[in-house]
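Predicting holo structure, D-serine bound.
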Amino acid sequence: MPTSERYPHLKVTDPEVYGLIQRQTALEGSTLKMIASENYASFSVLEATGSSLTNKYCEGYPAARYYEGNEVMDEIENLAIARLKALFTAEHANVQPCSGSPANQAVYRAIMTPGDKVMGIPVSEGGHLTHGWKVNFSGRDYVQIPFGPSQETGLLDYDQIREIARRERPRMIWCGTTAYPRTIEYDKFAEIAQEVEAYLVADIAHISGLVAAGVHPNPVPYCDIVSSTTHKMMRGPRSGFILSRENDRYQEKYYPESKFNLAKRIDRAVFPGLQGGPHMNVIAAMAVAFGEAATPAFKEYAQQVVKNARHLGECLKNGGIRLACGGTDTHMLLLDFRNETFTGKEVAEALGRAGIIANFNMVPGDTRKPFITSGVRMGTPGLTSMGMKESDMEKVGEWILRVVHALPDSAATEKAVRGEIAEFCKGFKIPGLDD
Ligand code: DSN
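Done. Tokens:
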């Protein structure tokens, strides 16, 4: 169905919202989606998200609801849970968190008490808001013990992490990032957590698709809890999930009086602790995405995402752009402009005008402010979903290099590149946008 014929009801009843959707669709169809945390969900995921399941209330969990008429809802939620557990070989799964931050809030509620110490990477060094950042609930209600990649190499230094953990004895350690392109060594984190008797929690929001496809190590065997979103590499709807062990290895130490094991405490933290009715349309779409992620085609996709990121990284390096952390093992590249007169923000804005949509980001050792930065973060999940391969990355690399090398007087180059990219995009089908 051509884009113009989609949403026939909305077109008539609310032309204003319809028009905005059409404009965004056109924008995405003529630019390169290179924000590392974005992707394209399939038509099937979008159809389930937009289904009439949105109308049903079913507070509670399968077979233990507070509303009648939930036989089918139970099947949907159980299906999502079963597919998710199989994908990651997890003992327990909760699919109700509305996104990554709510999932992480529930993690705190399940294993922490306000005032406890949490070891996490600050946002400015590649962590997430919920890993103890000062303006987030996690930094206000808990005490963040920061750690981060080495300022020199950009890599996580596990000896240093161990030293901090031994000194601070945190109750929880987050191993998860939003801007770290290298492999996370969960076995090393697990040794450290075990030694200091801390809960180990992996936030795999960025890489869950890579993990599901076996392209990145799976944290589940090493961690007490694993949280994620579903709309990044997973190509699902906007949502989140939590995986965990059934039993709490520190039950005696922290919860000797509780009759609830770890899995039960997580479920209770999500509902009724933090949320009300689960979004069943989204949970159905998650089941669809988990089904898609279990296919050989998705494995191939995830492998191609990494090949594309590596190849693009090589092209950029050969063109004179420095890569933070020395390169990538994942879907992500961090371009390092610390030695340049122009900033990360200026580069991101210039690329954006040229049709290359990425975001400015701090890089290890950055001395510029977080709203200015010396880096640009970009990823290949979106382009790979469109079917792009290494040879296409060479073109993308050339466009990025042309814009960056034209700075600060890049307006004419941006305009030319924007036109070339719009033409180039016509050669690809965008999942969920083009038939
Ligand atoms: N907004 C996400 C990202 O871009 O990495 C993190 O929540």
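The longest strand covers residues 172-176.
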